[in-house]
Amino acid sequence: MPLGASTCTNCDEATRLGVLDPISRGHHDRHKPMKAHLPLTDAACDEVAMRFRALSEPMRLKILRRLFRSEASVGEILDEVGGTQANVSKHLAVLHGSTLVDRRKDGTRTVYRIADPTLLKICSIVCEGVERGVRDKADAILGRGRRSSPR
User: Fold this and answer.
1) pLDDT class of 28 with cuts at 50, 70, 90
2) Lower CB density within 10 Å: C or N end of the chain?
3) Whole-prediction pTM value?
4) How far is Cα of residue 34 from the mean position of the Cα atoms in its chain?
């Protein structure tokens, strides 16, 4: 087996996501988390928590889904996600306050865009995990086990 290769699906997935060190020699070594690039101070923990709180509301995720395509005004966002203008504006204020979206004036309109380029990557990682979990549940309900690769 090549260095860093494994038959453990969890290890392979964690390595792909950058959570585990891909060059560890033993299977159990691969379960050790990689060292953080920067230490998280208490203030940094507060900032991270604020961003995750901002992402914890389904309407905000719908707004971000719209903004991942292109910048948009409140009216354009409202046309896609539904709700009321007051509600969408409130959610945009939370996203702006957590520095996830930026805004600019364009005449009488306010136009919003994604401010943090890592946001799409974060959302993609979480969505992949949700998708994998749903597939695993469906396999369990249908009695289909996961195939393990040959050793």
Assistant:
1) very low
2) C
3) 0.66
4) 19
